[in-house]
Backbone:
């Protein structure tokens, strides 16, 4: 059984088609790339999977259960986490606090319970601080745990976003252009890091990325979107020689 299955998924915004007839099955442990020009619908696919938007058509099945149109927090609880194209950290909070905030999603105590049963809340809180520290360690940020997120260098903020996503203990991680704004060396480092966390946290990963060389190097399989339509899918080698992809996208690629 696939971990994630999207079947005929489509999304229209005010009659305008952002994604149409999108199909994807991911097995546990896979690392799949989603590429395509700006406006192709890549982020919309993430927003559909995570419940930010409800699909106009089609259905989304995760771990054998239909999650189509489910509330984002419930989807998070089932094991899907993401990062954002534009970094969304609490810049005034410390790195550790940023991870802790995400961790609260997993708190068994509701806010009301928390007041009534402070004892249990406190022990969960202690456990969570420990877990958050271990996540910061795993992403190489233990030494900046107490620093304001907004003051960290860009690459570290990207890693902190990933640590925060990991705090909800996902099995599926969606990364939206994690290497955006990085030079090719930093991007390559980040890809090595992504491979490492896949291993360490037993993750299945769907990756949107513009740095072509790194996408080709890290993904086992790639889907190419153009104007909301999947114009190609296959191994990196297949994608690189696909004429549709070259004319729609790779031909104009500047990086990479
Ligand atoms: N919330 C929204 N409301 C209206 N249009 C949207 C919304 N989100 C995305 N779109 C449109 O959907 C298309 C795909 O956008 P997006 O998924 O962000 O592309 P990509 O991530 O591939 O650059 C674009 O034309 C964009 O303007
Ligand atoms: Mg996008």
Residues:
């Amino acid at each position: 059984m696939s971990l994630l299955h999207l079947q005929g998924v489509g999304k229209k915004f005010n009659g305008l088609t952002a994604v149409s007839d999108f199909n994807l099955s991911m097995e546990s442990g896979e690392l799949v790339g989603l590429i395509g020009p700006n406006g192709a619908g890549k982020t919309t696919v993430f927003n559909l999977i995570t419940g930010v938007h409800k699909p106009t058509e089609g259905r989304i099945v995760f771990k054998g259960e239909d999650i189509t149109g489910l509330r984002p927090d419930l989807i998070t609880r089932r094991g899907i986490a993401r990062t954002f194209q534009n970094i969304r950290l609490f810049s005034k909070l410390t790195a550790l606090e940023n991870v802790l905030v995400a961790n609260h999603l997993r708190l068994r105590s509701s806010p009301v319970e928390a007041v009534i049963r402070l004892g249990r809340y406190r022990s969960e809180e202690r456990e969570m601080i420990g877990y958050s520290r271990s996540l910061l360690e795993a992403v190489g940020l233990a030494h900046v745990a107490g620093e304001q997120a907004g003051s960290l260098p860009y690459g570290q903020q990207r890693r902190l976003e990933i640590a925060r996503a990991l705090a909800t203990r996902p099995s599926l991680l969606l990364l939206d252009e994690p290497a955006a704004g990085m030079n090719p060396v930093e991007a390559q480092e980040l890809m090595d890091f992504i491979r490492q966390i896949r291993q360490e946290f037993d993750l299945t990963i769907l990756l949107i990325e513009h740095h072509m060389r790194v996408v080709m190097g890290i993904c086992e399989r790639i889907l190419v979107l153009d104007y909301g339509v999947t114009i190609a899918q296959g191994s990196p080698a297949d994608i690189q020689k696909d004429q549709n992809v070259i004319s729609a996208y790779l031909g104009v690629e500047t990086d990479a």
